[in-house]
Amino acid sequence: MPQEAPQPIPPALAGQSPAPKRKLWKFVVAFLAIILIAAAGYWAWTTYLSPEAKRSRAATENYERLYKGLVTDFEDAMKADTWGGKTPQETLDLFIDALRKGDVELASKYFLIETTVNDPNYLTRNEWVLALEQAKEDGRLDEIADLVSRATPDIENRAYEEDYKFAIFDDSKKLDGYINMQLNTSSGVWKIESL
């Protein structure tokens, strides 16, 4: 008769306690908790608490504040820029009329404000005011008005809906230059972009 294989005795009956498995489990959990706490502490230090993190966060906040301020200033300036006509031709006629009256300040208001942030004339028309004042000193306002009054619409060269061009031809019908117009969508008026 074959002998039966001995059956293992459960630990509780053999006088052993199952505690070593529980101790191992507690050790693993405690070890993982320590690693997790250390990783969280390292992340908190590098992200929030270190001097570099504080400087980086402050720089980001300053940039966002500056950017929001620039956007707000730009939007406010564009909404307030209501000088001009509802059509490109109307703005051009108003500009010519201001030139003929010698009103440089009014004539300059029909130009688009400077929108390049780094330009010292940002959100102003100072460049155009100075140019028109010089033209007035030189006695050339009527000459400019005559030149601009010869402008004819150039519909074929429009880049997009808010863009409009006038072509200026000399007496021999040779192209002398362009007047670029742009719609200020914030105020709904057409502005002279370049002349």
Strand and helix order: HHHHHHEEEE
Distance between the termini: 117 Å
Q: Uncertain runs with pLDDT below 50, 5 residues or more? A: none
| DSSP strand tally | 4
* Whole-angstrom Rg: 38 Å
**Residue fraction in strands:** 5-15%
The CATH architecture of the largest domain can be named as Roll
The secondary structure category is alpha+beta
Rough outline: elongated
Question: Could you estimate the helical fraction of the residues in percent?
Answer: 40-55%
Strand order of the largest sheet: 1-2-3-4
What kind of sheet is the major sheet? 4 strands, antiparallel
CATH fold description of the largest domain: Nuclear Transport Factor 2, Chain: A
Mean pLDDT: 84
